[in-house]
Amino acid sequence: MPLISIITAVHAPGAAFLSETITSVRRQELPGGWDLEWLVQEDGADPCLESHFADVPFAAYEPNGAQLSIAETRNLALTRARGDLVQVLDSDDVLLPGALSALIPLFDDDRIHWAVGQADDLLPSGERKSFESALPYGMIPAGQVNSWAEAHGGNWPVHCAGLAMRTTSLRALGGWIGLPSDEDIAMFAALSEMSDGYNFDGVTWLYRQHPQQITRAARTRNLGEHCRRMALQRVKAMRLMNVQFGERRATGFGHDTHSVDVGPAAKVQPGI
């Protein structure tokens, strides 16, 4: 049975809206024959959020046991993913009913490595604010997203917090890049440069606006320009080296890339 893995990084100081996020995942319906796992990874040296997921049967919680970063936390969750697809969901955002059932069938086309639905801003008042997509709807050829970003000051027209992706494609890129900000943009820049994707004409999730957002923090804002520059530099390097996913076609579902055996770390002596 094919499986989709939702990955959510959680952190206690930013967990005020977690109950709404959990409710939104519970309400998801899946296409026939599909199953769901929710990989919740808590960042921080003093984890305290496990109880929120105790009665969610498809949730698999794990703490970092240390203060890391969003990229590192998501990547640790990715090591546990068993799904053919990965859906990103932040702990303060909301998946609308029908989100997964709308996006999953798009991957029946083996040219599609990523897909995203439209997002409304969810304002503190509870109101929703919609936006017109800067990209056409439907199939997005490899490289088109980054060409748009290059022409618009290193700003991407796709909100990466709502991405669905093939797990094998995400792993082939090394997951989320180790940057202090915009780690998802730097990952997506590489993914969308190497593969075709799909811009779905429908609102599938809500992006919550609130004062505690990480993207509003001064540290994040101050470093964002450097991190987006890194994303564009990555794209230029990939083009120079002609880095691509073969014929840009995926391998379908049912290919096991998660079951590997790893033993204790051992120092290998030179010459042995």
TrEMBL record:
Entries under Pfam families matching the protein: Glycos_transf_2 (PF00535)
Domain of life, source organism: Bacteria
Domain Glycosyltransferase 2-like positions: 5-119
Coiled-coil positions: none
This protein's name: Glycosyltransferase 2-like domain-containing protein
Organism: Allokutzneria multivorans
